[in-house]
């Protein structure tokens, strides 16, 4: 028996020693979470010592390897089938690792492909921009390029896409927060998450971890509502100083359009015989709105002979070859100049109020929706008013409309002094 136990002790000591020096983690199965979600991609995963990279202690860095799918998700669609096949795959992988095979020596062929961060992100970007409108593309391009520049500055761009983990992305988002705002940080998070979702859907990464990074609370920008007195006096000032800008503002005011939607309108989008306007909106391809008589007469005075002309340009109806964002920004800056001039006019005439930075072109939309809501509420119940208003404003749901009305304080309570006595 002594020989037997000596042999056993030697074998154990060898196994224990090798276990301490193991260059890999035991393969494990990801099965869609606690509920075994079959809509997710199941796979086998493991980590292996990187041949050159070191950790803070100077030891070889244990690096997560490309997940192994082996087309199991495509071939098997029940929990039992997938678990059985993934266990087989896990056992094969374990034996290969025990036999000394290394993912860095090209000895393991599990039909997976290693992407660099640059190639993977470029691939995701090329697909994602195909789904975006021109306005969003510019924003995505800018944020995408800045993220790649950040990775390159830290020598991560040529590394495996799997090395771009939550810690890396969080560090980048924190750097944005320190130099700009929570809103900018959140918008960047949204753009990066969209790219990593594409990578997950194409089996290049196991999971879009950016979804687990929470957006930060922000203080929403408030476009301050004008008083009706302000509107009347400002309209009079604009009719003399800048009639073209006034027409732009009236389309925002009376048709309840966003400024960028006004910039999209072409002559061919108008049907004056039926008082209809077709406009590309934020949340759907095209929406149809009526043209109220209050602005129809002004449109009928314009030269609408060329269907391809834009209704609003710096000089009137005509061609305008620049992006929608540039068009919107142009009129925002033009309004800023006229607002400054109007404030000088107010000072000269002895008025005590001034237009501030929160008084924007968009504020006219809020102002006239508020006016319309309050006028309707005189005759209609709240429910009836909501139903009628939805047809006019174009909100996609009652919940969206109610939330919007709450945000702009469209409905205020009656005087409650008697309850305080």
TrEMBL record:
<dbReference type="GO" id="GO:0006310">
    <property type="term" value="P:DNA recombination"/>
</dbReference>
<dbReference type="GO" id="GO:0015074">
    <property type="term" value="P:DNA integration"/>
</dbReference>
<dbReference type="Pfam" id="PF00589">
    <property type="entry name" value="Phage_integrase"/>
</dbReference>
<dbReference type="GO" id="GO:0003677">
    <property type="term" value="F:DNA binding"/>
</dbReference>
<dbReference type="InterPro" id="IPR010998">
    <property type="entry name" value="Integrase_recombinase_N"/>
</dbReference>
<feature type="domain" description="Tyr recombinase">
    <location>
        <begin position="221"/>
        <end position="417"/>
    </location>
</feature>
<dbReference type="InterPro" id="IPR013762">
    <property type="entry name" value="Integrase-like_cat_sf"/>
</dbReference>
<keyword id="KW-0233">DNA recombination</keyword>
<dbReference type="InterPro" id="IPR011010">
    <property type="entry name" value="DNA_brk_join_enz"/>
</dbReference>
<dbReference type="InterPro" id="IPR002104">
    <property type="entry name" value="Integrase_catalytic"/>
</dbReference>
<protein>
    <submittedName>
        <fullName>Site-specific recombinase XerD</fullName>
    </submittedName>
</protein>
<keyword id="KW-0238">DNA-binding</keyword>
């Amino acid at each position: 028996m002594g020989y037997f136990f000596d042999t056993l002790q030697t074998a154990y000591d060898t196994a224990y020693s090798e276990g301490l020096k193991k260059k890999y983690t035991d393969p494990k199965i990801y099965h869609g979470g606690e509920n075994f979600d079959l809509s997710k991609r199941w796979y086998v995963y493991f980590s292996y010592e990187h041949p050159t990279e070191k950790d803070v202690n100077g030891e070889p860095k244990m690096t997560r390897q490309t997940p192994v799918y082996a087309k199991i998700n495509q071939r098997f669609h029940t929990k039992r089938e997938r678990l059985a096949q993934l266990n087989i795959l896990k056992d094969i992988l374990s034996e290969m690792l025990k036999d000394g095979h290394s993912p860095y020596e090209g000895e393991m062929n599990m039909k997976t492909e290693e992407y660099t961060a640059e190639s993977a992100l470029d691939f995701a970007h090329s697909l994602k921009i195909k789904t975006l409108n021109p306005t969003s593309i510019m924003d995505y391009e800018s944020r995408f390029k800045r993220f790649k520049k950040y990775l390159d500055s830290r020598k991560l761009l040529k590394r495996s896409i799997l090395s771009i983990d939550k810690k890396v992305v969080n560090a980048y988002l924190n750097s944005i927060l320190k130099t700009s705002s929570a809103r900018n940080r959140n918008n960047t998070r949204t753009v990066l998450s969209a790219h990593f979702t594409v990578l997950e859907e194409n089996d290049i990464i196991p999971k879009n971890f950016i979804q687990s990074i929470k957006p930060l609370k922000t203080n929403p920008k408030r476009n301050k509502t004008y008083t009706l007195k302000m509107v009347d006096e400002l309209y009079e000032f604009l009719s003399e100083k800048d009639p073209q800008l006034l027409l732009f503002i009236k389309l925002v005011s009376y048709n309840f359009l966003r400024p960028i939607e006004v910039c999209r309108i072409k002559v061919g989008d108008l049907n004056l015989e039926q008082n209809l306007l077709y406009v590309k909106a934020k949340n759907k391809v095209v929406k149809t709105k009526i043209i109220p008589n209050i602005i129809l007469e002004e449109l009928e005075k314009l030269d609408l002979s060329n269907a391809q002309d834009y209704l609003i340009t710096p000089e009137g109806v005509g061609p305008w070859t620049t992006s929608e964002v540039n068009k919107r920004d142009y009129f925002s800056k033009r309004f800023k100049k006229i607002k400054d001039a109007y404030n000088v006019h107010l000072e000269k005439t002895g008025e005590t109020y001034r237009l501030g930075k929160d008084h924007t072109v968009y504020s006219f939309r809020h102002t006239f929706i508020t006016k319309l809501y309050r006028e309707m509420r005189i005759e209609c119940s709240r429910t009836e008013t909501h139903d009628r208003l939805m047809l006019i404003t174009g909100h996609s749901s009652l919940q969206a409309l109610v939330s919007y009305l709450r945000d702009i304080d469209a409905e205020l309570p009656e005087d409650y002094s008697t309850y305080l006595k």
